[in-house]
């Protein structure tokens, strides 16, 4: 099976290492020898080690243009590991499919935005379009959904889909670091980009969630319908409150079938401290699936890095070598249902609310009234006064000063909680803008 690899960076380098280390075993287990017959990257002269330098110096193998590599008669499988939603990645994947080459890619941005057209083209051409590495790196969740859980109706799929954000939240929780300090640490260790927006803003997780939603529910991709909130507004006070109240704070991607349609959402969420997902820390990812027959399963593992990601890429290549060919999104693209999304306003769940209440007569009464008007009942309410403000310890109460108050609501709707918080702001009894974090029922 002749491979052409476009992209010799982190993942491409890892893949070449696997071929070098396990070539013989792969030939035996997949029934065909796997040979590297073409490579492409931007800079031919970049130092990528001796093995890749040898490939780059061979004019029969090196291609300056990934599109030419994709069309080359010397390859059976085009492995796209360049990245990017459009550009060279899209052009070369389209060229490969048009030339009836199988495609393997780790590119979630490309698939989340163009997956439907590419899947239809692959099916028309009778070739594979495999993307195990595009979601949660080394965790085999695509195969799990496409194959192992085929006998289930999925009601919810959710998980920790971005290692950078999970690393930052873990640091905040375990070391008591402020968000900015934890982010700087992640950047220093190479877990976060200089511009971290894509990761901490929740957009990377949204791409992955869109792919999972389609596979789990048999619907067309709808990445633009994912509700996205990042972790950039999470504070140490929220992390502390989560701990005190028996929760942990995680950035979750959740796709759930409800009576109102499908919810697709990425946002910080409180999860019970005793749940398995609460203990998935650092750059580790996890994906949980609730199916009607299997019930609940949780897959945990490395969500990124050369080895884990290349391991998933290789599993896709082995499938092709073995002659396994499935529709990219499990059922034929033409049979995927239209995506019917549920508006976030109707989301039902419990909420954590943090208010900065001005120490004025009637402040609590007006908060209680606003909640009651929207039918929101409270499970707990805690006034988190700093020790120096406690009578007998420090200076005591300062009338008019803001006092942090944390509340946990019973299950309510997003619309109700938003209306109640807006009314409180308008009443002028609270200081800063109220903070609200969803609690995920596990
Ligand atoms: N890194 C991970 O842990 C991870 C995990 C899951 C999925 N992924 C996905 O895997 C893909 C690759 O990621 P990566 O981390 O390996 O990226 P990377 O280290 O930045 O490598 C990208 C490679 O693509 C080459 N390239 C970029 N544009 C090109 C063009 N126009 N023509 C030819 N070659 C081009 C680069 O060439 P030069 O070397 O010459 O610059 C480089 O070798 C992305 O889609 C990413 O989202 C990565």
Number of helices: 14
Shape: elongated
Radius of gyration: 25 Å
Small ligands present: NADP nicotinamide-adenine-dinucleotide phosphate
Residue-averaged pLDDT, rounded?
A: 95
Instruction: Report helical residue fraction.
Output: 25-40%
Q: Enumerate the spans where pLDDT stays under 50 for 5 or more consecutive residues.
A: none
Q: Tell me how many strands there are.
A: 17
Q: How far is the N terminus from the C terminus?
A: 44 Å
**What summary fits the major beta sheet?**
11 strands, mixed
Structural class: alpha/beta
Indicate the proportion of strand residues: 15-25%
Would you give an account of this structure?
The protein has 442 residues and is of the alpha/beta class. 37% of the residues lie in helices and 24% in strands. The chain has helices spanning 10-30, 50-56, 66-71, 87-98, 108-125, 141-148, 163-175, 179-188, 197-200, 203-217, 236-244, 306-321, 363-373, 414-427; strands at 2-6, 35-40, 62-63, 77-80, 102-105, 129-130, 154-160, 227-228, 247-258, 261-272, 284-291, 295-302, 348-358, 378-383, 402-409, 412-413, 435-439. Strands 7, 8, 9, 10, 11, 12, 13, 14, 15, 16 and 17 form an eleven-stranded mixed β-sheet that branches. A six-stranded parallel β-sheet has the order 3-2-1-4-5-6, with helices on both faces. Helix 4 links the parallel strand 4 and strand 5 (102-105). The protein is elongated and about 80 Å long. The model has no long low-confidence stretch (mean pLDDT 95). The chain binds NADP nicotinamide-adenine-dinucleotide phosphate.
């Amino acid at each position: 099976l002749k491979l052409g690899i476009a992209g010799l960076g982190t993942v491409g380098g890892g893949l070449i290492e696997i071929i070098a280390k396990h070539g013989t075993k792969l030939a035996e287990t997949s029934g065909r020898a796997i040979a590297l017959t073409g490579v492409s990257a931007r800079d031919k002269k970049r130092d990528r080690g001796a093995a890749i330098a040898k490939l780059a110096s061979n004019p029969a193998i090196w291609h300056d243009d990934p599109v030419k590599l994709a069309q080359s008669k010397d390859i059976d499988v085009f492995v796209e590991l360049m990245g990017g939603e459009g550009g060279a990645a899209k052009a070369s994947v389209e060229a490969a499919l048009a030339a009836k080459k199988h495609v393997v890619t780790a590119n979630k941005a490309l698939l989340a935005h163009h997956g439907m057209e590419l899947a239809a083209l692959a099916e028309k051409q009778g070739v594979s379009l495999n993307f195990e590495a595009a979601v949660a790196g080394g965790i085999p969740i695509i195969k799990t959904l496409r194959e192992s859980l085929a006998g289930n109706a999925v009601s919810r799929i959710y998980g920790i889909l971005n290692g950078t954000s999970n690393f930052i939240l873990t640091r905040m929780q375990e070391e008591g670091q402020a968000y900015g300090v934890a982010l700087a640490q992640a950047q220093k260790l190479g877990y976060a980009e200089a511009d971290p927006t894509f990761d901490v803003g929740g957009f990377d997780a949204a791409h992955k969630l869109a792919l999972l939603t389609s596979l789990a529910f048999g619907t067309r991709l709808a990445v633009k319908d994912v509700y996205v909130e990042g972790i950039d507004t999470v504070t140490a006070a929220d992390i502390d409150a989560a701990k005190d109240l028996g929760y942990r704070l995680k950035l979750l991607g959740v796709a759930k079938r409800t009576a109102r349609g499908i919810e697709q959402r990425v946002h910080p969420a409180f999860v019970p401290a005793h749940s398995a997902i609460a203990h998935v820390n650092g750059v580790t990812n996890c994906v949980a699936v609730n199916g009607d027959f299997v019930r609940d399963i949780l897959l945990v593992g490395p969500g990124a890095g050369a080895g884990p990601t290349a391991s998933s890429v290789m599993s896709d290549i082995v499938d092709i070598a073995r002659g396994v060919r499935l529709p990219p999104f499990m059922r034929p693209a033409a049979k995927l249902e239209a995506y019917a999304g549920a508006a976030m306003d109707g989301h039902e769940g419990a909420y954590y609310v943090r208010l900065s209440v001005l120490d004025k007569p009637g402040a609590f009464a007006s908060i209680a009234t606003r909640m009651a008007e929207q039918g929101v009942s409270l499970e707990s309410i805690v006034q988190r006064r700093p020790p120096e403000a406690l009578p007998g310890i420090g200076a005591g109460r300062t009338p008019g000063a803001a006092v942090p108050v944390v509340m946990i609501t019973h299950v309510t709707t997003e619309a109700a909680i938003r209306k109640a918080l807006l009314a409180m702001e308008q009443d002028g009894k609270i200081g800063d803008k109220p903070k609200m974090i969803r609690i995920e029922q596990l």
